[in-house]
UniProtKB/TrEMBL annotation:
<feature type="region of interest" description="Disordered">
    <location>
        <begin position="290"/>
        <end position="318"/>
    </location>
</feature>
<feature type="domain" description="HTH lysR-type">
    <location>
        <begin position="3"/>
        <end position="64"/>
    </location>
</feature>
<dbReference type="InterPro" id="IPR036390">
    <property type="entry name" value="WH_DNA-bd_sf"/>
</dbReference>
<keyword id="KW-0238">DNA-binding</keyword>
<protein>
    <submittedName>
        <fullName>LysR family transcriptional regulator</fullName>
    </submittedName>
</protein>
<keyword id="KW-0804">Transcription</keyword>
<dbReference type="InterPro" id="IPR036388">
    <property type="entry name" value="WH-like_DNA-bd_sf"/>
</dbReference>
<dbReference type="Pfam" id="PF03466">
    <property type="entry name" value="LysR_substrate"/>
</dbReference>
<comment type="similarity">
    <text>Belongs to the LysR transcriptional regulatory family.</text>
</comment>
<dbReference type="GO" id="GO:0000976">
    <property type="term" value="F:transcription cis-regulatory region binding"/>
</dbReference>
<dbReference type="InterPro" id="IPR000847">
    <property type="entry name" value="LysR_HTH_N"/>
</dbReference>
<dbReference type="InterPro" id="IPR005119">
    <property type="entry name" value="LysR_subst-bd"/>
</dbReference>
<dbReference type="GO" id="GO:0003700">
    <property type="term" value="F:DNA-binding transcription factor activity"/>
</dbReference>
<keyword id="KW-0805">Transcription regulation</keyword>
<dbReference type="InterPro" id="IPR011991">
    <property type="entry name" value="ArsR-like_HTH"/>
</dbReference>
<dbReference type="Pfam" id="PF00126">
    <property type="entry name" value="HTH_1"/>
</dbReference>
Length: 318
């Protein structure tokens, strides 16, 4: 019996996400719907694809050797389907069509939204569909739920997890130390001592290393993850915090100060990711994102914006 390609895509999603529940979220199906697709695919293939001897107890779904092999081969099916769509675009003589873009909030506001506005004037045949992504973006991209993903995940991590992903670095986004307005004149040691509003992430660990090197113990008194919440706590005088420059560009600064001294909490790389052989409309959107990122990296006045000009963005061929 021929295997249904759509069910192969369900199998691939289970393999990549590690479970029926997580695959159901990516595919926008119910968990029972995913299980039904797997059972039907097993009947079509005449093979056991799911190892049911290891189910239960909260353990992730494990595929059999046959299931893993079919799931990995399905990547070729996904690429072939995308290639057919691109060929149809070429015969239609246009580089329009739907482009689905996922992004985290600050990049949506300062990179993706301006790109959409610009392309609405220069490329009206492109139909952008924007999705705010807070997690699982790479799985949605690989599962053909997105055409482009703007992310701050390290490029090496992306390509290690998803072979075939094409990563274009858009910009370097330096991390800045933000202070309550009344602490703007504090010494480096006073700033390091705290109190701090920190998340448990790489920037905190970088700051801890700087503090150790200066013989200072951090007072990490508060924990915050949402950018708006953290900046509100800083403005209220609860402590200093670390924020990406791109995030600061989207928040008024009347109630807090941006440190511009020698302490360096590091930075992050913002990239756009797509699959191999992107459609013409996807390539055009990447070009526009690069232009918007270049504009966002222009030097700014020290009295109005944090820090110095950052290094130019570069493309990372994969």
């Amino acid at each position: 019996m021929p295997m249904d390609p759509s069910r192969l895509l369900v199998l691939q999603a289970v393999h990549r996400t590690g479970g029926v529940l997580s695959a159901s979220r990516v595919l926008h199906l119910t968990p029972s719907g995913v299980s039904q697709h797997l059972a039907k695919l097993e009947r079509e293939a005449g093979l056991e694809l799911v190892d049911r001897t290891r189910r239960g107890g909260g353990r992730p779904v494990t595929l059999t050797a046959a299931g893993r092999a079919l799931a990995e081969q399905t990547a070729q099916l996904t690429a072939a389907m995308a290639s057919v769509e691109r060929e149809a675009d070429r015969y239609r003589g246009q580089r329009g069509g739907v482009v689905r873009i996922g992004s985290f909030a600050s990049a949506l506001a300062l990179l993706v939204a301006p790109a959409v506005v610009s392309l609405s004037l220069t490329e009206p045949a492109i139909d952008p569909r924007v999705v705010e992504v807070t997690g699982g973006g790479l799985d949605r991209l690989v599962g053909n739920q997105l055409d482009l993903l703007v992310t701050d995940r390290p490029p090496a991590e992306i390509t290690a997890r998803h072979r075939g992903a094409v990563v274009t670095e858009l910009m370097h986004d330096p991390l800045r130390i933000v202070l309550p307005a009344e602490a703007a004149g504090s010494s480096d040691e006073e700033i390091l001592r705290g109190p701090w509003i920190l998340a448990d992430d790489d920037s905190r660990r970088t700051l801890e290393r700087v503090a150790i090197g200066r013989g200072v113990t951090l007072d990490a008194r508060h924990v915050g993850y949402d950018a708006g919440t953290v900046l509100a706590l800083v403005a209220a005088g609860l402590g200093a915090a670390i924020s990406p420059q791109l995030t600061l560009s989207n928040h008024p600064r009347a109630r807090f100060a941006v440190y511009s001294g020698a302490l360096d909490p590091g930075g992050r790389t913002i990239s756009v990711v797509h699959g191999p052989q992107p459609a013409p409309a996807v390539e055009r959107f990447v070009e526009e994102l690069r232009r918007q990122a270049s504009d966002a990296e222009q030097p700014v006045a020290a009295s109005a914006e944090p820090g110095d000009a950052v290094r130019p963005a570069r493309s990372a061929p994969r």
